[in-house]
């Protein structure tokens, strides 16, 4: 419309406005089509190669294995010991802990019923591990999460 008004003011033929609009729409459609094809072509080629068996389907990496001993510091407490049968035991720096664990498909470790087995009163000891409800292993480091699903501490593989 702007081009039509400009054409009328400059005493040029008014049909140039709509003609220019049609040309711009067609040019936009052609450029979009080319960009779309260029962007998707590699994906379609890869999918065709997977379907014909030319390249194998990518398998997700294995879940991190928590089985074993994890400790907060070298040779010290707190620590957790994960067994292959789904049990976990350890110490929070003051009291012994035990419970069960399961691992979700996302890799998150649920610490079910991780409860103190002793009731010692230890002044000046932070017993954060006893309130752990889940854990995530990232780069061989276990982040223990509390009730709000946020990290409250960490454990490394025992040496």
Tag the structure with descriptive keywords.
8 strands, 2 helices, 2 domains, alpha+beta, Lipocalin, 29% strand, elongated
- The span between the termini is 77 Å
- How would you spell out the order of helices and strands? HHEEEEEEEE
Mean pLDDT over all positions: 84
Number of domains: 2
CATH third-tier fold name of the largest domain: Lipocalin
Q: Low-confidence runs (pLDDT<50, min 5 residues)?
A: none
Largest sheet data = 8 strands, antiparallel, barrel
What's the overall geometry? elongated
Task: Tell me what portion of residues adopts beta-strand conformation.
Answer: 25-35%
Number of continuous helical runs = 2
CATH class of the largest domain: Mainly Beta
Describe the structure.
The protein is an alpha+beta fold. The protein folds into two domains: 2-51; 68-157, Lipocalin, CATH 2.40.128. The chain has two helices and eight strands; from the N terminus they run ααββββββββ. It has helices at 2-9, 16-51; strands at 68-71, 79-82, 87-91, 96-103, 109-116, 134-138, 141-145, 151-157. Helix 1 (2-9) packs antiparallel against helix 2. The longest helix has 36 residues, at 16-51. The protein is elongated, with a radius of gyration of 32 Å.
Could you outline the blueprint of secondary structure elements for this entry?
Elements: H1 2-9, H2 16-51, E1 68-71, E2 79-82, E3 87-91, E4 96-103, E5 109-116, E6 134-138, E7 141-145, E8 151-157
Antiparallel strand pairs: 1-2, 1-8, 2-3, 3-4, 4-5, 5-6, 6-7, 7-8
